[in-house]
Amino acid sequence: QYVLAIETSCDETAVAIVKNERELVANVVASQIESHKRFGGVVPEIASRHHIEQITLTLEAALGEAELEADEIDAIAVTEGPGLVGALLVGVNAAKALAFAKGKPLVGVHHIAGHIYANRLEKEFTFPVLSLVVSGGHTELILMNEHGSFEVIGETRDDAAGEAYDKVARTLKLPYPGGPHIDKLAAEGEDVLNFPRAWLEADSYDFSFSGLKSAVINKLHNAKQKGVTLKPEDVAASFQASVVDVLSTKAYRAAIDYGVKQIIVAGGVAANQGLRNALHEKFEGTDTELLIPPLHLCTDNAAMIAAAGAVAFKQGHRAGYDLNANPALSLERYGQRNDDD
Ligand code: ATP
Ligand code: FE
Ligand code: MG
């Protein structure tokens, strides 16, 4: 059984195909990062135009990679939200057109459910599963007791982890997206600047990164005024130490409190070497198995949407031709959706 998935929520046009839920047979990602770089971030209008230019080519490339005809596909999955509305619409309309033309069932997928399900392409889930979702727009701890059910037990109160990385990178004049550059610099520096850790209330699983971001900017500003030069490696290392400390400590506490069998790290920041190392150390020798996807499945792709879509398809979820892009789609509500609504 083959599920083809389309993902266009942000700045990658992606199409992938999975066989029998967990076997990836095609994974094509057309990234637009080069077009957005000189603006220091994603420009929505440019993103939509690129998706329109790339979507048909990407679809054909994926079918070619899998050596399949569109008729052999059993269902079409697509990211319906959250994301940029104009970007999402390109994927949703392409999916609807293909589903209609070929008479195939259509399945809507939540982008973050996708980031989580990327891991199922590598390893079968054993519930309860806790996911630490750390991406450009999200920082959340999500508890799953079964397939397709999502309980958000903690989330950021301000900036997302990836967003903090990108903003600090911009202050250090590093290219967009800044996360990987800070990660690399951090490995060469030392945690000597004592940036704050936002633990919030003792029992909270929530996060906050805006205070840390301001602390970094202030430290750089004050140093400049005093004519002191801070080593960018040390700024990166100190910033990363604070982010990683809070993320890994809270994820560990939640994993113990909820007695989960597996902890999943999902989203673009899951590519971070410092975070990977810290989590490996924390969960080593515990009863909780740590799953982190390979780098190419951390950032946006359609393989993850196909993995989540295949499960939604098996559970009987179907979208109609009135499926619309939903830029603010809630994960919990998506999990409780009733297709008759
Ligand atoms: P969302 O998934 O919340 O809608 P998004 O799709 O834009 O947002 P992703 O593509 O999942 O986010 O992740 C992109 C983010 O990951 C960027 O902020 C980028 O800087 C960050 N990132 C990528 N690699 C690393 C790394 N090695 N270290 C830290 N951050 C990283
Ligand atoms: Fe994403
Ligand atoms: Mg992205």
TrEMBL record:
Reaction catalysis annotation: L-threonylcarbamoyladenylate + adenosine(37) in tRNA = N(6)-L-threonylcarbamoyladenosine(37) in tRNA + AMP + H(+)
Family of this protein: Belongs to the KAE1 / TsaD family.
Physiological role: Required for the formation of a threonylcarbamoyl group on adenosine at position 37 (t(6)A37) in tRNAs that read codons beginning with adenine. Is involved in the transfer of the threonylcarbamoyl moiety of threonylcarbamoyl-AMP (TC-AMP) to the N6 group of A37, together with TsaE and TsaB. TsaD likely plays a direct catalytic role in this reaction.
All residue ranges annotated as the Gcp-like domain in the record: 23-306
Keywords for this protein: Acyltransferase, Cytoplasm, Iron, Metal-binding, Transferase, tRNA processing
Entry's localization field: Cytoplasm
UniProt entry tagged with the keyword Metal-binding: yes
Keyword hit for Cytoplasm: yes
Gene3D superfamilies from the UniProt entry: 3.30.420.40
Name listed for the protein in its UniProt record: tRNA N6-adenosine threonylcarbamoyltransferase
InterPro entries xref list: ATPase_NBD (IPR043129), Gcp-like_dom (IPR000905), KAE1/TsaD (IPR017861), TsaD (IPR022450)
Residues the record lists as binding Fe cation: 111, 115, 300
Natural source organism: Halobacillus naozhouensis
Cofactor(s) recorded in Swiss-Prot or TrEMBL: Fe(2+)
